[in-house]
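Chapter summary example.
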Amino acid sequence: MLNGLATEALHRNDLSMVCVDEHAALRNAVDDHTLVGGNLFASGILRPGVQPFVSPLSLRYSLQEQYKIRTDRGHYSISPTTFVMLNEGQRGEITVDAHAAPRAVTLVFEQKYMSDVARSFSAPLTSSLDIDRDGVVVRFPECIQHDTAFEIGPKLRSLSAACQRGDGPESIADKFRAVTECVVLVFSAASRQIDSIDSVRPGTRAELYRRIQRAYVCIQDAYTEELCLEKIARVACMSPHHFHRVFSQVYGITPLRALADRRMQMAHKLLETTDTPVSAICRAVGYHSAPTFSNLFRAKFGLPPSLLQQRSRRVRTQ
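The structure predicted for these 318 residues follows.
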């Protein structure tokens, strides 16, 4: 059962609702701001302004443009590449800039459903989640996440498209579960990463992780810009030395290595799927020197970028 305050907040932002049941009993069940059922998918254009809310256990995402969420734990920019998980009872505000029209997506999870999905994974995988003695997931780490995490982005977009098309209940339920499984994986990993930070106080570790995640999202989204360690550290509001050390503890690689990996990943995608000249792809992913780009690409993938593009072109034209 979802609380009335949560569904009323969804109504005030003109979000259309689809109730999602794991057993494929799809139904619209909105009555006096009360939704009866298991899980909820809600989507719609948010109005400009500031809207307070009390959240159920939910994932917040956007299909177009961005909006902001503020809670007592942090400020988050929600966009087509980022999302945040809010725990049940979390209070906050949604802020939409004037003239903006973000198409927000909210997935509301029944607590038991989420816990059942978490228990379907092996114990070592989910041991770091905050699960009580009855096997119920109590809280998720609240922090910004990038939609490349466990490839949750394509699954969110697939679910959104299915709901907007009015696909059958079984298809929507399957897609909803696929997203839920990604949520469990993302935040199981997040819990382990928080524990990896060298700090005595749990609250300090959680705050450092939230800052590191802001920087990680910056690397994923702003890889085409001229980024250096100092610029990325400023996003995290940390000194470069401290940021470098904590980021390396969390991700097992340095921030600049993460930046290089992102650039190489995107260059590989462009080379495989387009006929854009290698020199233009070099610049498109943030490099100014073609020889440097080629050397890094060869070291990463074992062949020069021009050869990968030639092979991919032959495959596409067959």
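To summarize the output: Residues 4-194 form a domain with the Jelly Rolls fold (CATH 2.60.120.810).
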